[in-house]
Design a protein that fits this description.
Blueprint: E1 8-12, E2 15-18, H1 23-32, E3 36-39, E4 43-47, E5 56-58, H2 60-73, E6 79-82, H3 88-101, E7 107-110, E8 115-116, E9 119-120, H4 126-135, E10 141-142, H5 146-153, H6 163-174, E11 180-187, E12 194-201, E13 206-213, H7 222-236, H8 240-259, E14 287-289
Helix pairs in contact: 1-7, 2-3, 3-4, 5-6, 7-8
Length: about 290
């Protein structure tokens, strides 16, 4: 019987009042892709942390209350999608939540936010890394950047890695639990004008690569945007390479739409200018099997 039920995604991220990052990106992207987004905020900030100052409200205690209320209401989720978790306690709360609510058809998407540029974020330490290693064990899909990949594997960081090296690293990370490993924002040593995304799917034992032109600009929230589109695409039934293509092209379109303006880049891409592109079919495929 057709019920008209919209798939529900619970998004476990922080919320910034200014700056298109985290829930400010996740909600519009996934809503535009046709999903019902239930928010589980981990913290509330006046603006994101790449500004010189910000206010911060930790919501760890409130997270427990929200989850307890959802349990009373017997709410079910088609996907659980996590981003920034501010402490080991929050990681443990979410791990318990995932274990209690995961059905056979529930998509568990973990963006293991730990650091960038070869170092941990300022408020994280080794305890957080250890907790995140345990959390990815219950994931279906993980989307670390290159820095997070090396921390999760507990091996020294290397900025430039060839296809074969990355295939070995993704395979090792998949052994910790996730079926799909996606490595974002991988630089190319031989060509600084492009950047790549790599992926491994345990089902079928296939490795994929998507390459995009690189524009010399930094916009906060691009990782949140990319993983949100991946989440929506997989829930829509896209194959992994098509999901990678869709996410990479959307992010590139967002950067190009914003790049030419005299604009405070700390606010993130002008998401409003490109949201409708999510409704369009992919025109050109750029993925390759490696």
């Amino acid at each position: 019987m057709f019920t008209g039920k919209t798939k529900r995604v619970v998004a476990v991220h922080d919320l910034s009042g200014v700056g298109r990052v985290s829930l400010s990106v996740v909600i519009p992207v996934l809503s535009n892709m046709g999903f019902n987004v239930s928010s589980l905020p981990t913290s509330i900030l006046s603006n994101h942390t790449q500004y010189p100052s910000f206010s911060f409200l930790d919501l760890t205690d409130e997270m427990r209350k929200i989850l307890a209320q959802w349990k009373l209401l017997d709410i079910e989720f088609d996907a659980i999608y996590t981003g920034y978790l501010g402490s080991v306690e929050q990681v443990n709360i979410i791990k318990e939540f995932v274990c209690e609510n995961k059905r056979n058809d529930t998509l568990i998407m973990i963006d293991p936010v730990l650091g960038d540029n070869a170092k941990l974020y300022a408020n994280f330490n080794e305890d957080m890394v250890i907790a995140m290693r345990k959390l990815i064990g219950v994931a279906d899909v993980v989307t670390p950047n290159l820095t997070e990949l090396f921390f999760l594997l507990d091996i020294p960081y290397s900025e430039y890695n060839g296809d074969e090296e990355l295939k070995i690293l993704m395979l090792e990370l998949s052994k910790k639990g996730p079926d799909i490993v996606i490595i974002t924002n991988v630089p190319e040593k031989v060509n600084p004008h492009i950047t790549s995304v790599y992926a491994y799917n345990k089902k079928g034992h296939r490795f994929w690569k998507v390459t995009c032109p690189y524009l010399p600009a930094h916009f906060p929230g691009m990782g949140d945007t990319f993983t949100s589109v991946i989440t929506g695409a997989l829930l829509q039934g896209d194959s992994l390479p098509m999901a990678l293509d869709r996410a990479a092209q959307f992010c590139y379109q967002g950067i190009r739409a914003t790049f030419g303006y005299e604009y405070d880049r700390r606010e993130g891409i002008m998401l409003e200018k490109v949201l409708r592109n999510l409704e369009l079919p992919i025109q050109v495929t750029s993925y390759e099997l490696i």
